[in-house]
Amino acid sequence: MTYDQIVQGLRDSTYELQNEGRLVRAGLKTEQDTAGIVERYAWLYSGETLEAVGEPVDEERKRVRAALMQGIIDRRTAAQQDRLSTFYANALAAVGDERVPFYTAQAELARDPDPRRREALGEGTAAVMAEAEPLHLELERTTGEVIAGFGMGDYTTFWSTLHEVDYGRLRDELVRVADAAAGRYRAWVEPRMEAAGRAFGDCPNWHQPFFRGLPEHDAAFPEERFEPAMRRTFDDIALELFSVATIHLDLEDRPAKNPRASVWVPEAGWEVHLLVRPSGGNADYAAFLHEAGHALHYGLTDMTIGWPLANVGRSMAYTELWSFLFERIGHDPAWIAEATGVSDAVAERIATDQAGVDLMLFVRYVAKLTAELELYAGDPLDAGRGQRVYAAATSARTGFLYDPRAWQFDRDTGYYSADYLRAWLAEAALDRRLREWFGERWWAAPEAGAWLREQWRRGSEPEAEELVDEAGGRPWSGDALLERLERRLPGGRLPQSVP
């Protein structure tokens, strides 16, 4: 087989797999069948094909080789992934006397104002996660076996090599930032825990989605202003998201639709799908802006750079940089005032709380990465140890009590948590540069939109830290993020208006 045939196989299989996953995620299909698709490409996802590509001689072939290794993992685990996805899509959570679809229960965690019911929803979803644990462990075992077969070291070494990241060094910088922001974090989150009838250190993590949604500000984000605000935002910066031919929007609410917003990319520069499950209020605006960053990055990619560099990133940090950048537009008090019509004073308060949510999530992901690194330093199949590591690391760092039964569900493969955290650092550095170049309201400057378009033409070729370096920032540094947190969040205990 030729190199071109291998690339075409990757292109075709990715197109099919992305659409299959999208249909299940969107609630348009109840049973996932990636295994059938992967088996049709058995010739592609094999050791023979990997050997045919050989050692990479340039960046494109490095990406192709990485995509093949990921595909080999996916082929070996496809049936297990299908069973797991189908299980959750059809699972019912016991909530008191009710039986609630698992993903519906998760969505309700973000909007139910009753703290006791949130805890009941959490208990119900945790029981479902515990029931799925054997499926998770089966998947984990197979993934480990495949990675070992590549001869590139253990799980952490493999992903560190593929993503070109020193996870230990990254963790140290992240912990430095989290420690420096600990006072601001507690000042913001503790009043919310108390409003839920819990103390810092004794608050079940099931309250976190509700805190994240900022329901006390929902009245400022009415449904009828949502689409006009978004259209104006993207028109002002000359990006016209709603009319980009390559981007397809799915904003409908369906019972089986996963509440986590997502973007699916059958082919960058050709077909991109943005999925959001509306739940009302501020969360709709934030989720849409986040996913719009992904959609624009992929939707405006120049296909002529070739499929590998257009579609295969070294990691996911680069694309998450763009989603974070656009979500943070919604944290700017000037944007809030213009988009919602609230007073400047109210907009400032909303922006402060959004910075609090941002810090809460950052701290959570630092804890998740810490737990993952510790998990894979030992036996990742030891369920008792894994539960203890997960619950201890996340609870100690965040002040929330994490349910150990979520130790498998609350983890994405390939150290995705690290990619998120790298994007946090890179986005703050890039945002600082955009404000220097185009002004504080860069998000309303067509010149900024033109600059962004030029970056997105490069597809997935650069890495997040490379872009920061090109822009004159400090890659791998959390200083810009700390500076923003110090500017947006007071250091003392914050007064709170609770729902």
Q: Can you walk through the features of this model?
A:
By secondary structure, the chain is mostly helical. The chain has a domain at 165-499: Neurolysin, domain 3, CATH 1.10.1370. The protein has 22 helices and seven strands. The strands form three sheets. It has a three-stranded mixed beta sheet with strand order 4-6-5. It has a two-stranded antiparallel sheet with strand order 1-2. It has a two-stranded parallel sheet with strand order 3-7. A hairpin with a 2-residue loop joins β1 (92-95) and β2 (98-101). The longest helix has 33 residues, at 344-376. It is globular and about 65 Å long. It starts with a helix and ends in an 11-residue tail after the last helix. Mean pLDDT is 94; it is low at 494-499.
